[in-house]
Specification:
The chain is an alpha+beta fold and 287 residues long. Strand 4 and strand 5 (125-133) form a beta hairpin. It has helices at residues 34-61, 101-110, 159-186, 197-210, 212-231, 238-251, 257-286; strands at 66-74, 89-93, 96-97, 115-122, 125-133, 137-138, 144-146, 150-155.
């Protein structure tokens, strides 16, 4: 330059951003777009579900037999054989869908009545059987040991059935966890029914005594539980953070930091209070 002045440096090229970046190099998490931060946060939370699937897959692969919802035979003195038949595939019990054998056993475990309506697939025909009575197996004190008075057929343990059973077990665990949350919100169960760290340790200790398959089953349940709980729209959890990021992505304006701070603080205080309350109930059960 003849004037002796140096030329201004070239303007930096605008940084190219994508909605689903494989790598964001040289960029802080806070500097990424709202949707990038949304999906990064979501993927972190989804790792709990992926781990749950892996654990259940290992559990199914190590099972000797994989149960179906099709009746194989009836126990001695079974009263349900008056309405049900061998080869019937149970679809519903008292309007509760039965996707897996666990849905059937869970109903008999929690139900108080011994007579109910059952929907079955018999051949190619769907039948609704009214007032089917079951004969539970009881111990010497009259306590119910087994509510079912029939046995189910094992499924062939090929790749298809292993995947189906893993998905069915995952669905069963997820529905059981969500059902517990809804029962808690509806007041059907109290806070005293929840378990905190002490109750979890006790459950793990009991599972260890039963065997490593029970440990895997409990691990899958806890992992899926954490994943679902973390995605609930509760302040201070990832679910609430995802709502903030979705709002920012849709409107182009973030939720004011002060509002986020107040909401997250209130959520943290509530969660700490709940943890203390649940831990006190755990201690009272052990005393």
């Amino acid at each position: 330059d003849e004037s002796g002045e140096s030329a201004p440096p070239p303007a930096p090229k605008p940084r190219k951003t994508t909605l689903f970046p494989l790598v964001v190099s040289g960029q802080k998490f806070e500097d990424a777009t709202a949707w990038q931060r949304f999906f990064v946060t979501l993927c972190g939370a989804l790792m709990n579900f992926i781990l749950g699937v892996v654990v259940l897959l290992v559990l199914v692969l190590t099972m000797g037999k994989v149960g179906s919802t099709t009746i194989a035979d009836f126990s001695e003195n079974a009263t349900s054989s008056a309405a049900l038949q061998e080869g019937d595939t149970i679809l519903q019990i008292c309007s509760n869908p039965c996707w897996t054998v666990y849905d059937i056993t869970d109903w008999f475990y929690t139900a108080e009545e011994e007579t109910c309506n059952v929907v079955v697939l018999r051949g190619s025909e769907v039948l609704e059987l009214q007032d089917v009575t079951f004969t539970p197996t009881r111990d010497a004190d009259g306590n119910v040991l087994y509510g079912m008075d029939f046995r189910v057929e094992p499924m062939k343990k090929d790749l298809r059935h292993v995947i189906v059973m893993t998905c069915d077990m995952y669905s069963y665990y997820s529905r059981a966890i969500l059902g517990s949350f809804f029962d808690l919100l509806a007041g059907k169960v109290g806070v005293e029914e929840l378990s905190g760290p002490l109750g979890t340790v006790s459950a793990v200790n009991q599972a260890v005594h039963y065997g490593w398959r029970e440990v895997l089953s409990l691990l899958a349940l806890l992992t899926i539980n954490v994943g679902i709980f973390n995605l609930l729209p509760i302040p201070a959890l990832d679910g609430c953070k995802l709502l903030f990021l979705a709002w920012e992505g849709l409107t182009g304006h973030p939720v004011p930091p002060r509002v986020q701070g107040v909401i997250n603080t209130a959520g943290t205080v509530a969660l700490v209070w709940l943890m203390i309350l649940v831990t006190m109930h755990d201690i009272s059960r052990f005393l």
